[in-house]
Design a protein that fits this description.
8 helices; 4 strands; alpha+beta; binds 3-iodo-tyrosine; NADH Oxidase; 39% helix
Length: 218
């Protein structure tokens, strides 16, 4: 049975206004950077809640909303995550990653040490739900695509609220399920430390691809 419908509440604007907003949004997102040095300054009440609700507006396959966001603020749990992540990352940097991969990471200056997992006031673990909470019969569709879109919207929302993020991907990530005591149909996809950058935080001088490189017009 199709759902009842409601009028679509689109914001109408002039061509000038449209261009102005598009430019402003681009400039705003262009300032987002992955930050690896965090301060322990707390996040104001309510901000994470709103950003998660914003992420939850993402489109998803058959509107199944196949995501769950685990927000870790407890210092003991954060430390457990750091210890487990550093163990995996030690193996990654030691023997799991190819020489070419490590060369590609060199400009970013990453290594197996992850102090930000202790220091950032919150870690958001993005979970993909393989199926619904009701069981394997509650099918989900396009789970990775849906969760990827929601994660992008979450990063944009957090940036808009003046927060810094790090899209961290310790691999393999199954230790998170165990540390967090989550059920097997929740698969960790991303670990996002959130907070404020450390004083004098530096980021690599990256360059983003030009429009000519990222878009093809037909
Ligand atoms: N997960 C490792 C390695 C790593 C991989 C990629 I691809 C990056 O863009 C950055 C790091 C780590 O977090 O150190």
């Amino acid at each position: 049975m199709p759902l009842p419908t409601i009028p679509f509440d689109v914001e109408s604007m002039s061509a000038d206004e449209s261009l102005r907003r598009a430019r402003e949004f681009h400039a705003h997102l262009h300032r987002r950077r992955t930050v690896r040095e965090f301060s322990d300054r707390p996040i104001p009440d309510g901000v994470l809640e709103e950003c998660l609700l914003a992420a939850g507006t993402a489109p998803s396959g058959a509107h199944k909303q196949p995501w769950r966001f685990i927000v870790v603020r407890d210092q003991t749990v954060k430390s457990q995550i750091r210890i487990a992540a550093e163990k995996e990352e030690h193996d990654n940097y030691d023997w799991r990653m190819s020489e070419a991969w490590k060369r590609d990471l060199e400009p970013l200056g990453t290594d197996e040490h992850k102090p930000f997992l202790d220091i950032a006031p919150a870690l958001i673990v993005v979970m993909a739900l393989k199926h619904g909470d009701a069981g394997p019969e509650a099918l989900h569709y396009y789970v990775h695509e849906s969760v990827g879109i929601a994660s992008g919207m979450l990063l944009a929302a957090l940036h808009t609220a003046g927060l810094a993020t790090l899209t961290h991907t310790p691999s393999p990530m199954n230790f998170l399920q165990k540390v967090l005591g989550r059920p097997p149909h929740e698969r960790p996809i991303l670990l996002i430390p959130v907070g404020y950058p450390a004083e004098h935080c530096q980021v690599p001088d990256l360059h983003r691809k030009s429009l000519g490189e990222i878009a093809v017009w037909m």
